[in-house]
Amino acid sequence: MLAAERRDHLLGLLAREGKIVAKDVAAELGISEDSVRRDLRDLAADGLCQRVYGGALPVSPAVVDYTARQTVAPDGKRKVASVAAGLVRPDAALILDGGTTALAVAHALPQDLVCTVITHSPTIAAALLDHPQVELFLLGGRVFKHSAVTCGAAAVEAAQNVSADLCLLGVTGVHPEAGLTTGDAEEAAMKRALAARAADTYILASSEKVGTASRFRVLPWEEITGLITDADPHDAAIEQLKALGVEVLTAC
Question: Which of helix, strand or coil describes residue 185?
Fold first, then answer.
């Protein structure tokens, strides 16, 4: 089988099965695992898969920069945001992550809501300036322009000095095996710091992120309260998550 044919075969397998196991493909095609791994490196270099130990997973479309992400699945993000906003109780303290889905949550919060919002996103803070009874705390640090949030040591230290009833956290990848992932190591560390300061943490994930993975792990499934998604409840990845005991809130 030519290299181009192997590439097409691998992409087809990824689309059908949602993952590639290198040793299984090598056995199926009668080639070495090294050959499969080389093919996967090439696909990953072209942004077509996310390499993991033993094979590859679908790559998340949400690793593009903040401006580009605003055009990805806007309807799904609004549905997720509507459910997430309903979890915020009057007088509660909310940690609201950055990103386009979190921004949709900010827009979905009632104008007369009385609460405290803690965020490391200048765009989230700006979006809530017209909510007269929302008290805002903006966590400072180095601005990661790709996602329009602060991160790094200063931001993590600031996060460690707050506490909240609820954390609404965005990720770029949601996968039963790979867990919750994102594309930047410092951003992943900041998300962990935020989640650690809330009594409950829900993950915001529109359907295009489900079944995909990015390079850096954020949290294992046992450390979150639940997942909010507009993905089909019968999606294979969602079924696997439910089997693992993950609470899934469906956003219709």
Answer: helix
